[in-house]
Design brief:
Strands 2-1-3-4-5 form a five-stranded mixed beta sheet. The longest helix has 12 residues. The chain has one domain: Cytidine Deaminase, domain 2 (3-Layer(aba) Sandwich), CATH 3.40.140. Helices cover 29% and strands 24% of the residues. The chain has 127 residues and is an alpha+beta fold. The chain is built from four helices and five strands; from the N terminus they run αββαβαββα. The site of tetrahydrodeoxyuridine has 13 residues, from α2.
Length: 127
């Protein structure tokens, strides 16, 4: 799947966001080494700390399907000029990035803007 299509999936997923408290919908789509893709959106809770980010929701679906090597993730929010993953999601992604690393695909002014996870999370925690 190319990165334009991956972003389309992230945009579609953002439409399913449950975000009545922040009113900030986020969608994500993970691409694995086996060319499988998994979408996720954020879902909030009245107990605010229980909110799950779109990225971790998508990663969880990949893991549940037996996919543990992520080569790219597209992220989209209609609320943000560029939607990059929060610090916690960067750390979670780093656990499952492929040996080639992980591309983080965002949308800026309707154009793809691509980061490397390792540039967004230098010196992440590794056991
Ligand atoms: N959110 C994400 O889904 N991903 C991130 O990387 C950061 C924040 C969500 C959580 C919450 O529902 C809303 O965006 C506002 O913080």
């Amino acid at each position: 799947m190319d990165y334009e299509n991956l972003m389309e999936k992230a945009i579609e997923a953002s439409k399913n966001s449950y975000s009545p408290y922040s009113n900030c919908a986020v969608g994500a789509c993970v691409l694995t080494e086996n060319e499988k893709f998994y979408t996720g959106c954020n879902f909030e809770n009245s107990s605010f700390g229980l909110t799950i980010c779109a990225e971790r929701n998508a990663v969880g679906s990949a893991i549940a399907d037996g996919e543990k090597k992520i080569k790219a993730i597209a992220i989209y929010s209609p609320k943000m000029e560029v939607c990059t993953p929060c610090g916690a999601c960067r750390q979670v992604l780093s656990e499952f990035q492929s040996s080639e690393g992980c591309d983080v695909i965002t949308l800026k002014n309707n154009e793809l803007k691509i980061f490397k996870l390792n540039e967004l999370l230098p010196e992440g925690f590794v056991l």
